[in-house]
Design a protein that fits this description.
Four copies of one chain form a homotetramer. Chain A is α/β, with parallel strands linked by helices and 240 residues long. Chain A has helices at 15-18, 20-25, 30-38, 60-64, 82-94, 108-114, 209-222, and strands at 5-11, 44-50, 68-72, 97-101, 121-123, 129-133, 147-150, 155-157, 167-173, 179-188, 191-196, 234-235. Chain A contains seven helices and twelve strands. In chain A, the strands form two sheets. In chain A, strands 2-1-3-4-11-10-9-6-7 form a nine-stranded mixed sheet, with helices on both faces. A two-stranded antiparallel ribbon of chain A has the order 5-8. Chain A binds chain C through residues 130, 132-136, 146, 157-160, 164, 166-168, 171-173, 177-179, 181, and chain C through 130, 132-136, 146, 157-160, 164, 166-168, 171-173, 177-179, 181.
């Protein structure tokens, strides 16, 4: 496929600066690790943005030049302004894809797109995560066979309070006894939204090829079509 | 069915006070007309609330005592505070049903529940609206046969920018050539949401028995189950 | 709820007759065990039927007097005639509920209702099954909290080749590392279909109260509304 | 997009031979008209097949070399053998796309894929059909704006007894007062299914560029991914 997708990886970039364990795993930030991974995929044109940049890294210009926004947030959800949330949501409505990773389940922008609480249960225990493919022909599952194993991860458990996904791609198994819908697709306006569970900051999840492959697949899946239009109320004159 | 459902009809109650045409149709308010209609349904316990009451008519106590909230808003969408929106949304997540009528498509609380722009096309022309049943066995369509005709209505046309409904119950036909998904169901958290298109303030739509029947059916459908719990993030200890 | 639901439990009733292990667990058949369990639920009127009866236990009269058909099949799928399948499918289209249990995933009638292969992966290992609730407010999950554990079961693993469920109620976890969408809802015509995974014939699954509760909840959920009509093509004259 | 899709247009090819009116509109068959239209789309490699060919035009070899099967059937539904239906369905499960046109709603293979009766209401009156886009960013709606008008068509009306579409792309309006879900998407196994309503044999619908464009768009949308595998039950050994 010759389609070229402009991916912007946004990271709040806080844990990596305040927590030695996280910095050891992602010395230049989670966004940089994902960007390096995606560089192997020729159809993607990758850039990065962080919370500490002007306009929180997400100006109108920046967003307009982005086909798919990848988001990683955790402890700084509240620092993201309502204006930033509104700008991002509006771009999704106009067709920009949005990929929310891991603790982004509780980011303002993801919750605004879902309309639900997006809550779940969790436990940091460092056991493995088995990611099972439940939709084998879905483009996001391409090349992943039955699924893959992440050696060490935080546990997320059901019930995950999101709208029933339009398409469920992955379900995760955890050794402590829990399950989680870990790859979920929704349409919002003209834009496509994908949530992908793995990626706790203290584990090298984003150094794992299968995880990067999922993000690359999702970027192609979420890329907008030819037009990029914000829906609006419009008066429709009589046919006359 | 013996289930008893506490329905609260909320109306911004502005058009009826400032517009003579509307007052002529609904002299004591749209909410009062709907309440009168629903009084014929013994399983429903009906109350009303309006924007000008304390806490905009929607205090925590009020909402906690409501099984299903019916909402009519139009020109005062912006007057509804973010706090009110948050209170209502949280109650929906906990299990309260929500029925949005007509121009409520653009109410803050409905848009917050959907996550999309909720925009559409429209024309006030007073032609008829034919409401077709597309899900004959759905409880909201009970007793309505193939559908019914509203003699005079405002036109709403596609594309209606909402998430794909979990269940589509009605599609409307307009003589000017338009169609509209006029009865749509979604789950949000533990609560059920129904959008029903008819009800322009200058037409006697809410005096029509079939329209009231839809609202009564929807109230039973949207009523919460036994528990009423707000979902929350929760730490899950190891099985031990 | 005062609604009274006529439930017919159909069982091929073969394993219990040819296999000593199965007979030890279900001496008078799986259908009898389920019927005994459901007897504790006053809203249900329970009967049983088996493959060796005239018309395979499923005559037109029998089906017309059934609100919800529960089905357990395994080694005799091929013995069910195409006529029987057609009769049952037609009744589902007219509004009869259908609950498919365990190996019924591969029954002719279930596959005819789904339109897919309904294949999966499996292993008889007798480990536990943890059944997680992923839709806490769904009526089929009522009274089950976060879920429950079945001490010994056969494993079923993804990918389960069914259409994306309209509502996903349960996901199961197995100690060998697998997950499975174990409680799935679909609408087919005027009828509701529920698939529930547990119930291998060599384990006492249908003696467990939580399992029976799921079936009882599902029977109420799947019960038809007021009308029972087979959809048909119909010429529609001009309004004239 | 460089993807090259092998499209096979299957037509029962009966009306054109027995009915002068139809022959006048489609002298060499509906399949030939569609094939001519699709020839303008460079990404598609188009062939045709008809009921009177060996193995009803749909041998295993033929199907294995087909990415997307377009189907037009009407009066000869019963002439299609169960073996042919099973071959086609199995290929859909393995990933082949299927596009059902117009009266194909009642073809055996379409009904087998849906699991419902697929019935509807109808009237041949030759009025116009307005096809509205309700999912503007869906790839099948690309290039069609708000929709388009077909000058003369047969009317199909709701209720259309199909499973709730995974994605609803078009709704049609008819001057006699009816509406119809005229563009519907479903996933079945690894294959994608699209139903498109227009195309009565006595009207020149398949000579209209917008109609051909929908079929071309749908062919790209329904094309399978890299693998083409029939799902099967499989024993899964313990991890060991």
């Amino acid at each position: 496929m010759e389609q070229r997708v402009r991916v912007c990886i946004w990271n709040e970039f806080v844990d990596e600066r305040v927590n030695d364990v996280v910095r050891a795993v992602y010395p230049d930030g989670i966004h940089a690790a994902i960007a390096r991974g995606l560089a192997a995929y020729p159809g993607l044109e990758v850039s990065v943005a962080t919370l500490d940049e002007p306009e929180q890294g997400l100006s109108e210009e920046r967003l307009a030049a982005t086909d798919v926004l990848v988001w990683w947030g955790h402890r700084a959800h509240d620092a993201v302004s309502d204006e930033t949330v509104a700008r991002v949501q509006r771009q999704v409505w106009s067709g920009m894809g949005f990929i929310g990773l891991h603790s982004t389940h509780y980011a303002k922008v993801f919750r605004a797109l879902m309309g639900t609480s997006c809550t779940l249960s969790w436990r940091v225990d460092g056991g493995c995560e088995r990611v099972w493919v439940v939709a084998p022909s879905h483009p996001i599952a391409a090349g992943l066979g039955d699924g893959f194993v992440i050696p060490h991860e935080e546990m997320y458990g059901e019930a995950f309070d999101v709208p029933e996904p339009d398409e469920l791609v992955f379900i995760s198994w955890f050794p402590g006894g829990e399950v989680f819908r870990s790859g979920c697709c929704w349409q919002r306006g003209n834009g496509r939204v994908f949530y992908f569970r793995p990626g706790h900051e203290t584990f090298p999840t984003y150094h794992q090829p299968e995880v990067i492959r999922v993000i690359a697949n999702a970027a192609h899946w979420a890329a907008p079509g030819a037009t990029r239009t914000v829906p609006g109320n419009r008066h429709r004159p009589a046919a006359g």
